[in-house]
Amino acid sequence: MRVLITGGAGFIGSHLGERYLERGDEVVVLDDLSTGSINNIRHLRRHPRFELTIESVHNRSVVAELVDQCDVVFHLAAAVGVKLIVESPVRTIETNVHGTEVVLAQANKKKKKVLIASTSEVYGLSNQVPFREDGNLVLGATTKGRWSYACSKAIDEFLALAYWREKKLPTIVVRLFNTVGPRQTGQYGMVVPTFVRQALQGDPITVYGDGRQSRCFSHVADVVGGLVKLMDHPGAVGEVFNVGSTQEVTISQLASRVKEMTGSSSPIVHVPYGEAYEAGFEDMPRRVPDISKIDALVGYRPEKDLPAVLTDVIAFQRSLSDSSPSAVAATEV
What we know:
Blueprint: E1 2-6, H1 11-23, E2 26-31, H2 38-41, E3 50-54, H3 60-69, E4 72-75, H4 82-87, H5 89-110, E5 113-119, H6 147-167, E6 171-176, E7 179-180, H7 191-201, E8 205-208, E9 214-216, E10 218-219, H8 220-232, E11 240-243, E12 248-250, H9 251-262, E13 268-271, H10 273-276, H11 292-298, H12 306-319
Parallel strand pairs: 1-2, 1-4, 2-3, 4-5, 5-6, 6-11, 7-10, 8-13
Antiparallel strand pairs: 9-12
């Protein structure tokens, strides 16, 4: 199979490309490197079944050509990280909505199957935990820029499902929950690599807010395994799936665990959301997925628990100490 991955030089995209190459497939990556990094795919570039096109997903002619040459499409290109979302809301909305419009329109010409990467952010302020795919999405006010990302990804979902219902383009939507692992950095606000880097450098470990907000962190290896299984299964078409772990941890507990596992003497300090992002910033108190739907269809069950996830991230961050600064540029979808 020939697989196109938009945003394939990003954190998750690079691991997904690896998985397909290991399986014997061909991989084509489209990435403009605005948040992705050549370093994420440097080890893949000499592979005979790997191709890279450095261009924007907004370029219709390039996307049309690449889609035409491939069997399936993973659309991972998107604005990433809370920091980028708050600082660049126009870029966030345009990148997410317009990029998805281009990919779906070009894929529809030849009815190529498309998997759209969405996010747990779409659940917003919902308190119906654990989150189910058929549950209500509860977004904050439009005056709160933080919710522009969730809204733009929800539009992506509506558009993908509309293409399936109206035009019979085979589409799959996945909502990713806090994916972490090697190659991810804290450049755009990702909490695990940020905590690990701070702990290893002896800097204060900065917990935003009171630290009682909770998350479920999934290893990227588990996540990409789930994505591949969904793409292979005909029953996934036209459906939305949560993909993640159900092992819940508060951010304060996470900070303590990272400090312990790194043997760090770093103090744990609390930073108000207003200082970290913007005045009036709103966060999701809990983010826990119900993964029974994907489990029932393809047998998805995360194999790596939180200690295993942190062990891999710590090892990766330690390996960067002997690398040049440019080697740490990476991204998440």
